[in-house]
Amino acid sequence: MPPASPNLTPANAPFPFRATQAEITFGNEAFHHRLAWEIRNARREICDFVHPETAQGHEEEDMELFRAYSEAMDRGVSVRFAMPELMWKVLIAYYVHKEHGKLRFLASDGHIRVLPQVWSPFTVFDRERVLLCVREPVKQMLFRQTILIHDPEFAGKLAADYDRMWESKARPVDRAEVLGPNWRERVAAAAPAAPVTPAAAQVAQATGGRP
């Protein structure tokens, strides 16, 4: 193989990238566990720009993420969750008869907003780290490769873009459209009796103060 031309070195590129610190992991299970770990270790803020995987077959992994989000909210971490409107409707309709914790999380509009589409999912933690998800080319609903970038400058700029999206493009969810006019009763009926944690109280307040 002939040597590369000196004019093709990164330093001579028209817009050279700067080096940064990053980690990579492979496999869908590793993606779920690392995302949950990062959520649990967030100190101040989580900005999630997400296109969830299909619901069927991932209940256990998804439940770990929902628990991690609830724990983060209990610690006072600011959680914002932007996702495609159609996927939100599919998930909330799927979980209405299956899992009360997921239903109550999805039924709250305090931390969830919807968009027509999400093309490049990412999550920003504390404006310091960014988790980028790469879909599998064959099974395109699954995330197989994950890149965690430790770079406050990059994370801060991405979070600033997220702020603008949240205020100007994303909109609160319409729970009555999917669950019907009695959506409060349906959400409350799905929840078993349990001690009220700060996260549960926040969700209850967002869903009309029902237990």
In words, what does this structure look like?
41% of the residues lie in helices and 20% in strands. The longest helix has 17 residues, at 152-168. The protein has 211 residues and is α+β, with helices and mostly antiparallel strands. An 8-stranded mixed β-sheet has the order 1-7-6-5-2-3-4-8, sandwiched between helices. The N and C termini lie far apart (69 Å). The model is unreliable at 192-211 (pLDDT under 50). It is globular, with a radius of gyration of 19 Å. It is built from 8 helices and 8 strands; from the N terminus they run βαβαβααββββαβααα. It has helices spanning 28-41, 59-74, 85-95, 100-107, 152-168, 175-179, 183-189, 198-206, and strands at residues 21-26, 45-49, 78-84, 112-115, 122-125, 129-135, 143-150, 171-172.
* Tertiary shape: globular
Q: Return Rg in Å.
A: 19 Å
Structural class of the helices, strands and pairings? alpha+beta
Chain-averaged pLDDT: 76
Biggest β-sheet: strands ordered side by side in the sheet: 1-7-6-5-2-3-4-8
Number of helices: 8
Which strand-content bin applies to the residues?
15-25%
* Beta-strand segment tally: 8
Order of helices and strands: EHEHEHHEEEEHEHHH
Main sheet characteristics: 8 strands, mixed
Rounded to the nearest angstrom, the distance between the terminal CA atoms is: 69 Å
Poorly predicted regions: 192-211
The helix content is 40-55%
